[in-house]
Amino acid sequence: MDFSLTEEQLMFREQVIKFARKEIVPRVQEHDLRSEFDFESWRKLGEFGLLGLHFPEELGGGGSDVITSVVAAEALGEAGVDGGLTLSLGAHTYLCADTIFVHGTDEQRKRYIPKLARGEWIGCMGLTEPSAGSDVASLRTRAVQQGDSWVLNGTKMFITNGPIADVAVIYARTGQSAGGQEGISAFIVEKGTPGFAVGRKLVKMGVRTSPTSELIFEDCVVPAENLLGQEGAGFFMAMRTVEWDRSALLAPFVGGLGYIIERCCRYAQERHQFGRPIASFQAIRHKIADVKICQEAARSLIYRIAWCKDQGRPLNHLEAAVAKLFVGDWSLKPMNDAMVLFGGYGYCHEYDMERIFRDSRIAPIGGGTSDIQKVLISRLM
Amino acid sequence: MYYDWTAEELALKQSVAALLTQDAVAELGLLEDAELRQLKRITSRYLKALSAVGYLEIAVGPVERGRLMQLVAGQEELAKASGSLFLAAETTARIFGGLLAGFGERSAVGDIIQAVMRGDVIAGVAMTESDENATEPRPTTAGVRDGTDWVVSGKKDYVTNAPIADWIAVVGAAEGRRAVFLVEPPQTGVTVGPRMQTLGFNGVAVSRLELDSVRVPQDRVIGPFVDEAPLDFLAAMQDLVLSLAAVGLQFRTTTEAKKHALTHHRDGKDVFRHQEVRFKLAEMLTWAQTSQLLTYRAAWLYATGDPEARTVLHCAKVFCAEGAEQVTAMAMQILAGRGYLSGNPVEQAYRDAKLTGIAGTTSERARMAIAADLLKRHQV
Question: Which pTM value belongs to this model?
Answer without folding.
Answer: 0.96
